[in-house]
Amino acid sequence: MLRVLHAMKEEESEVSCNVDYRIMPVKCNTKCGRNAVLKRPKTGDALCKECFFWAFEEEVHHTITAANLFSPGDYVAIAASGGKDSTVLAYIMKLLNDRYNYGLKLVLLSVDEGITGYRDDSLETVKRNEQQYGIPLKILSYNELYGWTMDRIVEQAGRKNNCTFCGVFRRQALDRGAALLKVDKIVTGHNADDIAETVLMNILRGDIARLQRCTAIVTDSEGSIPRSKPFKYTYEKEIVMYAYFKRLDYFSTECIYSPNAYRGHARAFLKDLEKIRATSIIDVIHSGECLAVREGVKLPSPSTCTRCGHISSQPVCKACVLLEGLNKGKPRLGIGKSSKVRERLGDTVSNSGEGNAPHISQANNSAHDF
After folding, report:
1. Is 80 annotated as a binding residue?
2. Which of 60-64, 104-108, 287-291, 335-339 has the lowest mean pLDDT?
3. Torsion of the alpha carbons at 88, 89, 95 and 100, rounded to the nearest 10
4. Contact 255, 216 (CB under 8 A)
5. Where does the 2-thiouridine synthetase TtuA-like N-terminal LIM domain start and stop, copy by copy (predicted)?
6. CA-based angle 210:259:201, to the nearest 5?
């Protein structure tokens, strides 16, 4: 609970979430007759707890149904880290599945990156969520899949590019876990703030391929399991408020390796914009949705990695490139100039076969862990 209160204090330093009763009680804008206890960052409405819960849940339900994210009978993996977004997502998916009879089979899928003092603690929260929500849990580790932990990677590579390693490995780990469980779809807790930040980052990096698809509510490619974002239009602050007033059990400590991440600069810029214009987050998302690549621009087409068989737009996927560098004691091998590095690695594979391929376990342990 102290963690939740700490998280709320951080949010309240950026936006006034609570209604000030020192002047006079403010009634809920829905005219339900109850006193308001919060002001929605997204709309500015003063609401009581009950009306806020209803509005929050119905907006997520509308996002799900408008985009036809699921079909009855779908087996859906919820990417669970123990943080506020994934905890609220698990709670909401369970709630809406029961309320509206989606007909989904749910499972929690967690990735243990091997970060001592952070991920081991957050996974304890996920294990409690498993019991609280009655949703089975599967945990996969970097050590199991790649033969490395993030602690060892940071020890060798330093802190400057550690988020590159973690992001690439985590995305692939979720795909491998989902394939192991034979789920139909994956849902992640990416919220509106996350997506707006990604739009800004891709613009600043000139990454046309990612810019075109980063606002999509469903991302998939041939042969991969579709991922969807039910919180695409949900503000981070409102997720924190929902978790706080619902008294949900979540882990609020920031990753010890992330303070210098590039995303942090985009986040700070976006928060400054939001202070001037409350709709900045949604505006950036809508702008990203409207961007189109002109005809004639060649975009990478998905294929499979010649080493591990995972979906990739290059002959050798980014995970294998990074692992090659780690295993050779040259962690910067896969950082920057990736096309030239992958070209060289692709030639190595064709000349020497798979004998020198970096270790990526197929994680073929059975799903009877449930």
Report:
1. yes
2. 335-339
3. 150
4. no
5. 30-52
6. 20
Q: Return the SS3 of 308.
A: coil
Out of 19-28, 79-88, 147-156, 204-213, least confident range: 19-28
In order of their start, the domains of the chain are 2-290 (3.40.50.620), 303-352 (no CATH)
Q: Which of 17-21, 111-115, 248-252 has the lowest mean pLDDT?
A: 17-21
DSSP 286-298: HHHHH--PPTT--
Q: What is the DSSP string of 241-270?
A: HHHHHHT-----PPPTT-TT-HHHHHHHHH
353 appears as a binding residue in the annotation = no
Q: Is 134 annotated as a binding residue?
A: no
Residue 20: φ, ψ to 5°? -80, 115
Q: Token digits for 190?
A: 């990416």
3-class DSSP state of 49: helix
For the residues 359-363, what does the mean pLDDT come to? 55
Number of H helices, E strands in the chain: 14, 10
The contacts of residue 51 (CB under 8 Å, 6+ apart) are: 28, 29, 30, 32, 34
Q: 85 labelled as ligand-binding?
A: yes
Residue 67 in marked binding region: no
Per-residue CA distances from 153 to 58, 327, 335 (Å): 42, 10, 13
Residue 339 assigned as binding residue: no
For residue range 254-299, list pLDDT tens digits in order: 888 876 677 888 999 999 999 899 899 999 999 999 987 777 667 6
Strands 227-228 and 311-312: unpaired
Q: What is the model's pTM?
A: 0.85
Element containing residue 129 per DSSP (H, E) = helix 119-133
| Residue 79 counted as an annotated binding residue | yes
Neighbours of 160 (CB within 10 A): 11
